[in-house]
Structures are given as C-alpha cells and as structure tokens.
Design goal:
With 672 residues, the chain is an alpha/beta fold. It has 23 helices and 22 strands. Among the domains are: 94 residues, OB fold (Dihydrolipoamide Acetyltransferase, E2P); 191 residues, Rossmann fold (3-Layer(aba) Sandwich), CATH 3.40.50.300; 158 residues, Rossmann fold (3-Layer(aba) Sandwich), CATH 3.40.50.300. Bound molecules: adenosine-5'-diphosphate (ADP) and magnesium ion.
Length: 672
C-alpha cells in the first residue's frame, strides 16, 4: 500500500500519532504460538497446523476452486489468484511447508481447511513468540499492515510511566509500558479470556489511565475556572430567613444539607460550579430559590434559566409566589411580553432594581444587561449548549457569576462521578414527606374505553388528569396534529368534562392561560404534548394517561409520571401501549413499571443507551471513554478520582503529562 493511502486509512481509524497506535488495542487474539496436528484439531476452534505441500490443482466440482494437497491436510480456496496456484506448485517442488490458521474439518481426503490464512515456510522455521493480535480495522487495511505500524509505534513511542511508583503500588496497577506491550503481544499461555473480557491487569491499567486522564482534565478545567474571581455573596441573610419562616413546610434534611453547601460556596471569592441533583419532586427549586435570595441579600442579581418557555413560566410562577411577599422583584422575560413590558423588564435588570431574572436562553442573548449578576441558576443544564453558558458568563462585568446547575432527571452515579467530575455535586436524596407512590399500570390501547371511564370517575371526584399525546419521532408537525386530533376526540368522548389543550406551538399567552386554568381547577383534563414533561406542578392532578407510552424514553416517562403523586390522593399513571410491543419497548416499559426511584431508572437508561445519548450538549465537550465501562468499572472510576486529586496536589506536572499523553489536542475543549 502506498504511504499516503496507508496514512489515509489510519486516519480513518483516528490513528494519527504514535501514541494513538499504541492505544489502538486488539479486540481479540489468535494463537499461532503452537502447532496442532491436523487430525487432532478440536472441532470449531481455529488452530495453527503445518504440513508439507505435495501438489496443487484447480478443481471444478462442485465449483471452481484451488485445492492444495499437503501431508494429511487439504486446503481449499474458492476465491484465489492464478499466482497462488503457481506459488503452491513451486512450494511443492521446493519441499516447503504450509502453515495455516483456521478451523479444521473432516473431509473426503481427511483433514480439510477452507480458505485459511496461511504462510509458506521452510522446515524448522520458528513459531511466533506472542499471540497474534486482531485489531479493529477499516476496509482495505490489512491486519498485517496495521500490526506492523502498531509494533513500530510500540518501539518508537515513549512509553515511560506517567504514574508515580507509589501511586501505582497503592492501586495495584501494572506498569504502563509492560501493559501496552502485553496487550499488543501477549506471551503464549496468556489468559485469553481475561484479555478478551478486558479484565486482565494490563487492561485494568489502560482503563485506569483513561479514567485518570478524564478526571485530571476535568479537575484542571475546574481549577482554571475556579481561579477566576466571583463576587462574595455574603449578605445579612435577612431574605433567606424570612423566606424560610414563611414556608408552609420544613425543608427536608437533604434540602438543608444542599442549602448549606450552596450558601457556603456563594460566600467564596471564586465561582461556584455546583450541580444540584435529585429525583423528580425532591424539591430542588426551593434550594435554587434560596440561592437567589442569598444573592439578593448580598446586593447582587440572580438569573434563572430554563430550556423552555413552559418551564421558565413554571419557575416564574413559583418564584413570584414566594418572592413577592418578600418584596423581591422578578423580571420575567418571555416571548409574549409586549414591547413596553419588555423594555421595562430590561431596564429593571440594567438598573439592578430587579434582583431576579427568569427566562429561557433569551436571558443570555444580546440586549439583556445586568447591573450586577452574581448567580446563574441553569435548570436542565444538559440541554444548554456550551455557547449559551459562555455567553452567560460574559454578562457579568465585574466578575464571573456563581453557577448552580440543576438536572430534572437524576444523573446516574457513575456518570456524575466521571463526566461531571468538573462540578461539585449536592445530592437531594430524600423526598418531602407525604409523597405517595404512584401506581403504574400498563394497559393495551384496545382498552381505551375503560381508561376513559376511569378519567370520568376521577374527575367526578374532583380530581384532575393529564392526557399525554405520543411523541412523533419524525416531525413536530405530526406531534402537533396528533395533539389537536386527540384533543378534539377527547372533547367528544368525554362530553361534560372540561378538557383543555397545551402544546409547544401555542402562543405564550395561551399556554399560560391553559396552565393557569388547569392549576386553578378550571380545566379537568389537560391534553398535552410532552411540554408538561418538566416542572409542571399541579398537586390536585392524580391521574395521568400516556398514549403510545412505548415510544417514550425512560427518562421522559419518569419525568412525566413525576407530575402526579404530589397531592394527598393515591395517584395512577396509565401507560397505554399499542400491541404488539417490540422487545426493546417491552423492556423499557417493564423498567418503568417496576421502578419508582429515578436514580435506578437513570442507571438502567444509561445501560440501554450509553453515555453519549445521556450527556446531551455536554458530550460535545468531553471525549467519550473508549476502554472503561461505566457500569463494570465503577470501582476503577472511584480509584481514578482519588488518584487524580492526589496527583494534582502532589505532582501537577505529572498530571499534565498524563493528560497530554491521553488526550493530546482533545483536551482543549471549552468548559464554562
Ligand atoms: P423538583 O426537584 O422536581 O424540581 P420541586 O422543587 O418542583 O421539585 O418540588 C416539588 C414540590 O414539592 C413542590 O410543590 C414544592 O413546593 C414541594 N416541596 C418542596 N420541598 C418540600 C418540603 N420540604 N416539604 C414539602 N413539600 C415540599
Ligand atoms: Mg424542577
């Protein structure tokens, strides 16, 4: 192969530097270190055999083929070049042996192999002293060529260990060079099963290094952001105290702990970078509200950003209810504001008269200026792009604002330990008292009439219900049409009930009106698209029907179901499905049916979908793990975290070398 062609093929595999080649690890091996006698080969297992070539010919039955007769062995090739015939004939004349790797089968003339990989050798030629690695490759790049490049790279790349001896010893890690060499050239007798399953100590070292590089790069990014100045939000705490005094309930212990962590961070002179984690309904909003009040107490402004108008409106509604009695003005920026109102809101933020802004990304767009932005609360952080967060930071003139990030669905533990290692985490692991478990029912769409009767019954008792229309993968238009049709149908089918409609395309004012009517009990059944997925909070709603539940993702179903079970009544979530279910859909529904804990559902979801899907916008910044597996290697993640902290404290230069080796140019992603 021409050098340029080879380079292009290597490039296609992402192999650019020598070190890339070193890290291009085999996915399996073939054992050519020992010979098996052809008549002793176990069935179904590829082996290396060797026999003296006797003659070669082309046969035509049952189809055209090259047949090579060797001593006690016949080789057949159905695709072959004429030159191979010549080659084997010459080998026979010269008394060479054929050394072939493949499965041996009993045939007409004794042991046979069909198109094995082979080499012609002289008597006495030594066998390879290592297992043969088989690499992931691409069309037109032969194993032998790739193997050659990798072996070269192993010799030329510096494989010195980036980990201090002591650290290696404590974590029981094999040496790096030794591990790399072993994985590319395992000695005869190496434990193949543990190599293929990636549990071999050499694999363990590679995974550890990869995880360590991830931890280190995130900790470095964290430290870099932390070096910036942020306003110290240390006021007299009057607003926070008044707010807590007025709350009709007590904070849970978990909320109190989270509040303590947030307030402590806010008093520091560098920006908080904290993720507030908790299951649906665990009461994250209150903790965020307290953070905003702490900012106001200190004479600074806060901004609460949500990914959708509906959610931002929910925040506004809730925060306004809490803050107005305290005399804290909120500027709510949304699509339906008249020009004059909008000017007033912008002016209030510019002058600092409004200590709090609530809105969507619009908040970080041009034209919104803050007098003294001290805190940004980012809800559903994974839905925001890096760009938007970067812009938010630019909004702050004097110093970088503190950041509190929230996530509507729990982030699985392994994921937050790895991909979110650049954030401090506050965990609300307790639900407010009095929450009732939601009963989940799986009901075939064929039983729709029973479901309608159920809705009538619930509404007759003064309860309210949601009807969630299916997601339509291909088009938002289709989704909208479905919602309109469903609404029209349900209005007819449920005569006498007040049926409302909510979807994302409604003008903001109408959306607001529908939500308000539902919250006030004016609407009994709310037909909606998934816009209600996040944040909508109507405790009197105790019944939810999700149509075509089989089309929803796990996180989405859990979110939706979390909208009920918030009041005093027993709540029921009916998952309507269209039979027959695919195996995958059945699996998903089963998980939702069997689990109420969002963290467990998130963990299962991660297993099903992998981290890429899960990370959303965040993924664009972080290189995905190639070797380590979040589920299986959880103990290694913990070890790498510990090692990263230690390395940064003791020998940051070694840490940088390690990151450089593993991430090279890829480490320069922006993290804000
Ligand atoms: P989420 O974590 O899903 O954002 P919310 O903050 O929306 O949860 O809270 C869900 C509901 O629980 C809200 O109605 C809120 O007022 C209520 N709530 C929050 N904390 C408590 C508490 N400690 N005791 C009782 N109710 C609470
Ligand atoms: Mg919420």
């Amino acid at each position: 192969m021409k050098a340029a062609g080879l380079a292009r093929k290597l490039d296609k595999l992402g192999l650019r530097s020598r070190f890339d080649l070193v890290l291009h690890l085999p996915h399996r091996y073939e054992d050519e270190t020992a010979l098996t006698a052809p008549d002793a080969a176990p069935p179904g297992k590829p082996v290396l055999v060797q026999a003296k070539v006797e003659r070669a010919e082309i046969a035509y039955r049952p189809r055209r083929q090259l047949v090579v007769h060797a001593q006690g062995l016949v080789l057949r090739f159905f695709n072959f070049y004429q030159s191979q015939l010549t080659q084997f004939r010459r080998a026979a004349a010269e008394g060479l042996l054929v050394r072939a790797f493949g499965e041996v089968r009993p045939g007409w003339f004794g042991a046979e192999m069909a198109h094995p990989r082979y080499r012609l050798v002289h008597e006495g030629e030594p066998l390879p002293d290592a297992l043969t690695p088989i690499y992931p490759t691409t069309a037109g790049l032969a194993q032998a060529a790739l193997r050659g490049r990798v072996l070269e790279a192993l010799d030329e790349a510096g494989l010195e260990d980036t980990l201090p001896e002591e650290l290696r010893r404590r974590h029981g890690l094999a040496g790096f060079a030794e591990s790399a060499r072993l994985l590319h050239r395992p000695p005869p007798g190496a434990d193949l099963a543990s190599l293929v399953e990636r549990t071999h100590p050499a694999w363990r070292r590679m995974k550890f290094d990869e995880l360590l590089a991830q931890q280190l790069s995130m900790r470095f990014a964290y430290r870099k952001r932390r070096e910036r100045r942020a306003p110290m939000l240390a006021g007299d705490g009057r607003l926070v105290r008044e707010f807590l005094a007025r709350l009709p309930f007590r904070l849970t212990r978990a909320q109190q702990r989270a509040m303590g962590e947030v307030l402590r961070d806010l008093r520091e002179p560098h920006p908080m970078q904290r993720l507030l984690q908790g299951d649906v309904g665990s009461g994250k909003t209150i903790v965020a509200a307290i953070a905003c009040l702490a900012a106001a107490d200190a004479g600074w402004q806060a901004a609460v950003m949500a990914p959708t108008e509906i959610l931002s409106e929910q925040h506004w509604r809730k925060l306004a209810g809490w803050f107005e009695p305290l005399g804290v003005r909120i500027a709510w920026l949304h699509g339906a504001l008249a020009a004059k109102e909008k000017r007033a809101a912008l002016a209030a933020l510019r002058s600092g008269e409004a200590p709090l802004a609530v809105g969507t990304h619009a908040l970080v767009q041009e034209g919104v200026e803050f007098a003294r932005l001290g805190l940004a609360v980012v809800d559903e952080q994974h839905r925001f792009g890096v760009e938007q967060r970067l812009m938010l930071r630019k909004k702050a003139e004097e110093a970088v604002p503190h950041q509190l990030m929230m996530s509507a669905t729990p982030i699985p533990r392994t994921l937050s330990m790895s991909y979110y290692a650049d954030l401090d985490v506050s965990l609300i692991d307790e639900l407010p008292p009095g929450r009732r478990a939601v009963a989940t029912r799986l009901v075939s769409a064929a039983r729709r009439a029973e479901v309608l009767a159920r809705i009538r019954e619930a509404c007759a008792e003064g309860q309210q219900a949601y009807w969630v229309c299916p997601v339509i993968e291909e088009s938002k238009e289709g989704e909208l049409q479905t919602a309109l049709d469903t609404h029209a149908a349900l209005v007819k089918e449920l005569k006498g009930l007040r049926v409302g409609l909510l979807h994302g395309r409604m003008p903001s004012a109408e959306k607001a009106a529908a939500m308000q009517a539902f919250a006030a009990g004016g609407i009994q059944l709310l037909v909606s698209t998934t816009v209600i997925e996040v944040g909508v909070d109507v405790p009197n709603a105790s019944l939810m029907v999700i149509e075509h539940a089989e089309r929803f993702g796990l996180a989405q179903l859990h979110q939706l179901r979390g909208r009920i079970g918030r009041g005093a009544r027993e709540s029921v979530c009916i998952l309507l499905y269209a039979a027959p279910l695919s195996a995958a859909a059945r699996g998903r529904l089963k998980i939702i049916y069997e689990n109420a804990d969002g963290f467990e559902i998130a963990r299962r979801d991660l297993l099903l979908r992998g981290p890429g899907e899960y990370l959303g916008e965040r993924q664009s910044g972080a290189p995905l793990l190639r070797f380590a597996d979040l589920e299986r290697d959880e103990p290694l993640i913990a070890a790498a975290r510990e090692a990263a902290a230690e390395l940064i404290a003791r020998d940051p230069a070694a840490g940088r070398r390690h990151v450089e080796r593993w991430l090279g140019a890829r480490q320069d992603y922006v993290r804000v």
